[in-house]
Amino acid sequence: SSGVLRTLGNGSLLLSSPSWNAGAGALTTFDPVTGLSGTISSANSLVGSSAGDGIGSSSGGGGVQNLLNGKIAVRSPLWNNGALADAGAVTWGNGTTGITGAISSANSLVGSTANDNIGNSFPIILSNGNYATANNQLVLPTVFQKIALITAPNSDGQRDFIEIIEKNKYGYAF
After folding, report:
1. pLDDT digits (tens, 9 = 90+) for 68-91
2. Which sign, positive or negative, has the C-alpha torsion 40, 44, 46, 51?
């Protein structure tokens, strides 16, 4: 998909550049008054690290979701976790200052196997202020549902804890 400029709930602008760097993709947040100058890079944007990551693309269910309190969730289901194609990632961040750096397990919830496609569904807010994101995958011979429970992002937009629960026809595995 091509680049898109959108307004976040807090008035900041988000420039989506999914074709940047051979399709690695980038999301750049900036203030509409002060503007943006310079070249897109990991110093001023959230970026993918390999061709086809498609950060900022709506392909495969990806995109950006405004959360309560001015935070954002970036869904990147086509992100490659090293050699694990389409493992996917969800990155939580501040909608005003943006998120910078390359997507990794240090700043995102990431898939641990190829084709996990983490981020292909919208995060939902739970009654206690935490967020959950789920992903259904067919893994023969059972159907697994991976559910990530994430504490509400703290003041810097990062999550404090992640727990992956896998549910199959035999019950839950922690």
Report:
1. 777 888 999 999 999 999 999 988
2. positive
